[in-house]
Amino acid sequence: MSEQHAGSESHGLHAPQPSISPPIIGLGVMILSFGILFGIPLIVVGGAIFIIGIATWLIDDARAYMRAGEPSGDAHGHP
């Protein structure tokens, strides 16, 4: 195994924290879709839920970015 690959094995898999935002966005899109069929009130409610889902996702992402801090080294794991 080469040196380049051996150094990258020490880094674990990075996965984002669990978030409620994707299901909220999905619910908003579903209600928006029903609003297209059944009327304006559902479009308004679905749009509001969709915007809340986007906002919570952006807030979660901003918090994760602030917790991550400054990167050390380059994008390939070299110091």
Structure commentary:
The chain is mainly alpha-helical and 79 residues long. The chain has a domain at 21-66. 67% of the residues lie in helices and 0% in strands. The protein is built from three helices and no strands. Helix 2 (21-38) runs antiparallel to helix 3 (40-68). The longest helix has 29 residues, at 40-68.
User: What's the alpha carbon Rg, rounded to whole Å?
Assistant: 20 Å
Largest sheet: none
Distance between the termini: 20 Å
Instruction: Give the SSE string.
Output: HHH
Total strands: 0
Helix content: 55-70%
- Shape estimate: elongated
What structural class do you assign from the helix and strand content?
mainly alpha
Tally of DSSP helical segments: 3
What is the average of the pLDDT values? 82
As a percent range, the share of strand residues is under 5%
Show unreliable segments. Answer: none
How would you summarize what this structure contains?
The chain is mostly helical. The chain has helices spanning 3-8, 21-38, 40-68.
List keywords for this structure.
mainly alpha, 79 residues
Protein topology:
Layout: H1 3-8, H2 21-38, H3 40-68
Helix pairs in contact: 2-3
